[in-house]
Please model this.
Amino acid sequence: MTFRLSRRTVLKGAGALVALPTLEAMLNSHGTAYAEGGAFPQRLLTWFFGNGVVLPMWTPSATGANYAFSPALSPLQNVKDYVNVVSGCNVKTPDLRGHHNGCGAMMSGYPFIPIPANGANYASKFGGPSIDQVAAGIIGTTTTFPSLQLAVSKRATTGEGPTLQYISHKGPDAPLPPEMNPAKLYQKLFGNFVEPSNPTDPRDALRLNVLDAVKDDANRLIKRLGAADRQRLDQHLTAISELRQQISALPPPVTSACAAPKTPVTQTNQDQGGAEPMEAVHRAFADLIALAWACDLTRVVSVQFSGSVADTAYPMIGIPDNEHDLSHDPSRKDDINRCVTFCVQNFAYLCERLKATPEGPGNLLDNSVLMMTTDVAEGWVHSIQDYPVVIAGRGGGVLKYPGIHYRSPNGRNTSDILLTVLRAAGTGVSSVGGAEGLSTTVISELMA
Model:
């Protein structure tokens, strides 16, 4: 009799649980769906960077299927078939405050709501739920974590309300602060240990070997698996072990004991040579996202690589200026584009990591939809027209593959992009956003 395994099987040990990736023993005889019924899960991820782009260096010159990537998008070449570029769409909510408007419209489709500024130039909150939370309420209800909120740079603005500070919101008064520490995310996902009562270093729990705790259960399971599944499980456990070592090598927070001070002395990561370790932190997060999706621990993620109106700097690529100030200087478009390209390189790593993770006859990128965007089209004019958006993944076969460059001929609503993404994630929603930002129409040209 063929050995079958429930898709919800976990490895168990003393104080630890480790979820499993999709194995052949969980699938039907064709390997196209779970034996228990149901297709592979569809997933959604929003990926945000602050302060806009240089549109002539971002937007491909040709449209349709035979387009070539622009300089800024060239890092996505290895996953080009999975990429749909969208241009020519305009934010329809009132153009009152550039960054506020772009954040609210592109993450939720709703106009922002002004709030007391308390000494700042302006402040606002979201007018409705962000699309990741719309998705979490539909496709995230059966997973261990309905959604994950992550951020890479800690240099986000904090004085102009939650619209600019966070990208994930359950509603107008419910922003969701992101996790910025890959070690804590690792522990949350894969290390069900109780931390010491008075730890001197919050990474102590991370150093407990989760895999040792579940080794006996893993060995029992391996004896019952076929050759391909044994190899897949070994790769999965090896990836967890290597990731734990990778995270442990990251620089600690600002205090020597690696514990947050009662009153934070700074909002930055511990620098390495004057730079935040953004690439290392993002790679760790990307690897964890791939593992979490492979194990169906969550299906919805938001990643804030850099924040709106952020002081994030990129000395690691020779640009020490903070990106918000830089984005207001049109004489430095080449430097702005170098920063944007660095952001795209990191997004590309995540896409490649998902593509490299098998799921049934395909991979995780086949069954996911990722949207990369920003808070303004171009920073020096705070424009919200011709908005820069990239959609990656096939959405379980819903999205156009190979991808195209779709350019709206009439400045259509950017919320149409959001609805397209939500539909590709399997939510089945018929509308998104509100007021002037309301959309009930997907971009049919992006659909398979």
Notes: The radius of gyration is 22 Å. Residues 135 and 384 are 25 Å apart (CA to CA). The longest strand covers residues 43-48.
